[in-house]
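Troubleshooting: if your tokenizer reports a length mismatch, compare against these two reference records.
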Amino acid sequence: MIELEFYQAKKLYPFQETTVKQVLDEIRKNGTDFNLLYQLPTGGGKTVIFSEIARQYIEEWNKKVLILTHRIELSVQTSHQLGAIGVQSKVISSEVKNSNDQHEYQCFIAMVETLNNRLLDNENFIENVGLVIVDEAHYNSFRKIFQYYENCNILGVTATPLSSNKTMPLKDHYKKLIVGESISNLIENGYLANAETFSYDVNLHGLKIGSNGDFTISSSDILYSNYFMQEKLIFAYEEVAIGSKTLIFNAGIETSRRVEEIFKKLKYNIRHLDSTFSDKDRKDVLKWFKETPDAILTSVGILTTGFDEPTVQTIIINRATRSLTLYHQMIGRGSRKLDNKSDFKIIDLGNNVRRFGLWQDYINWQDAFRFPDRFLESRISEIEDMEFEVEFEFPKGFDKVVNTEILDNFSIKENYFNCLEQGFKGKKCLDLSLDNHFESIDASAKNLDHALALQNVLQDHIEHRIKQYTKCISKCTDNYLKYLLETYNRQLTQKIRLNIEE
């Protein structure tokens, strides 16, 4: 059991008390089987809020609460907060194999994969659950748990109500979104530190987009490991942040190692951290970072959630991303306010501010929740589209499934302009693209069923091609894009059925 003896309960701020009342009123009004999503910026105190919701829910409904997290640090942090306000909780870690003592607890905190494994063996691993709270609800790994709690209330909490998987929008699983305080309001009322942003233009030519919609790690490593980008990073640090406690976010391990190497050569106090580190080594690095005033920590991914070090003074985004969620997660690591810290600095080395706006800017989260595709597309600037030719990068090993060499040799943009030069309509390039997809499938397929399966596997690539075409003809509506995609797939299916034997 986790030791809670000396943990001090955090008193709720007025806006947090209002949120607790709002959420519980929604549950009272809508009854069971009602899923609610709550948005609040990083640093606004989501753990404090949902811990109090859990306490009051247990008291009023006399049912158990299950809290889902995706990091053990978040589980322990939540358990401490619950214990401090008088709620007995149990963390279901990988060491917990049974629930024979479940009658002793009112609340359970579990990492999603661990709980899923227990539920596969025993659907009643935790009984009498009335409310499931999902921390960092934008991650899709939680959804596998929902089937076991269909008759419960589910409350998702997140700083950015946008699904990590564009094909699985949050609106499909949550019936309503409650939007909390904005970043600017939290700054104005003294709850968050303000940010001063320094943007350095970078040439992103060569970056590729992967199947998840973001720039690939491999192409980012190549770009950000080169001499000119390393020089730009050093220049920005020395111009803006020298001597301050600095957190650097990179896309890949290779880049982060290079960053550590070049800063060390210049005698700066820096260490590298990534997900391959052991728990002990990770704790040692974070302890050093906490205790060293001018420390620079260069990292990959691991510190975007579940990490809280209020003394951070500068955030350097040494990468480009198309994920608004990741953009806010990275910056949020510097937004904690202290008595001697009312502001912090952001250095952007990925044209991210141009893509998403300033961290403090107003965002219509209701629009993002209801129309995620439209919302995300509108935030990718036309300047960025013109800046480099976006390439599609297939997942590792994909070339063993389908002939990608044939696909790589085709460019929508080149074929579009070639068609116009030859007096054809630009749309003819889609016919040529379709022939190219068919050629690749035909070269790889064993029979008709296999060919149709390969068409399905290629959907991300087909959608990428259609989007490239719509950029050639200027921006198009969502409905027209959908029409083009459906027509393209229907014609490709017909071509496959006509030309490939069963």
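Reference record two:
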Amino acid sequence: MIFRMNTELGKKTAVLLAMMPFVISVIFYAYASYTRHKDNPKDKVVPTFTQMKDGIKRASFEKDRKGEYRLWIDTWASTKRFLIAISLLFVGVIIGLHMGVFPFFEALLLRFVLFFDKIPALAVLPILFIIFGLGEVSKIALIVMGVLPTITLDTYLRAKRIQQEQILKGFTLGANSLEVAYRIVLRQIFPRVLDTIRLNFKAVWLFLIAGESLAATAGLGYRIFVMRRYIAMDIIIPYVIWISLLAFIADWAIQRFIKWRYPWLGYE
């Protein structure tokens, strides 16, 4: 059954199988925490679930010395940066579309984008801090530098794969070049481009946390690196889980949108 390609799973079975890795991970962590605390009741590296619950309760519902609820302030700061960066990534979609459709833009930009894509964004972070300072611009610029070239090249490759017959058909029906690009090519590749963007959420969070860890006064990544100084794993682990949950929700939302807007793609 496991290695049969034509196996049909019931809904309950599929749900149970999906939950199994999570349950195994929780059991494994609980055992590791129990073992370490049995040897050292003051262990901070692998906190118990009770300790993590208390830690997240303090961060969420108890004001700090500044009178702020740290988790929600950090979540808002990181989410705002995340959304701004994601909105700017759609510029890469337009650039990639033009590169894939118009020979002038392909000749002008393709080699530059290919070269730009190979620059390690984290290596440029000190330069961004020098140019833009330690504010929001440098953090968002880091994310854009790290992810936008990938989105641009993916869009370019998808646009190049559109059959020439469809483009010629558009011209035959009286469309001009821009109408063919945006009403024929972009409409076909946009769902898959959205897939590429959501699959890069991990990279977006990576660069966001890197920027926050070096220069920020609020943010999920900033808080994790502050807590690292005190080995406050009861705060760090819930924060990591919270970041993952936010990224998962954003990914799920885009999947639902694609399924609703483009039902012919067969999304489950």
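Descriptive notes for reference record two:
- The two ends are 21 Å apart (CA to CA).
- The mean pLDDT is 90.
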